[in-house]
Design brief:
single chain; about 150 residues; mainly beta; Jelly Rolls; seven-stranded antiparallel sheet; six-stranded antiparallel sheet; 15 strands; about 70% strand
Amino acid sequence: MALCSKYNIGLRNITTQIVPTNGLISMGGTYRNFSRTINGVNTFVADGESLRLQQAGFYLITINLVGTATEAGDVTVQVLENGLAVPAALSTETITTPDTEVHTFTINYIAAVDNSCIMGCNVTVGKTLSLQKLGVEATFTNVSVSAVKL
């Protein structure tokens, strides 16, 4: 069953990128953006390296990557929210034949953006999502990120 939402964004990077251990993975450019602006704040902001969720609510995040390692070992893609690792929002693949064995990494999770009271004002505390690569150096040839406001 497909999810339908008025507010969603899609990012894609089909440029080959070699990512060192603990390096950040480029999410690429926006190919779809159906969002709204409330009080001058857009639902989504993407800069190629990260995706910012700026309005309160729940978001379904789907991330797919295609890649291989430059040496044998484990490759892990970890989602970061505001620079901190999100527990269970990761995907690990073991590469035994470097540069020829291609794997697909998939991550699905729900992100929550909350409101908070700061100095008597109700404000939304947005979240900036980024992707960190752990384990051996890896090459990614396709990165796709989708966010749907539920």
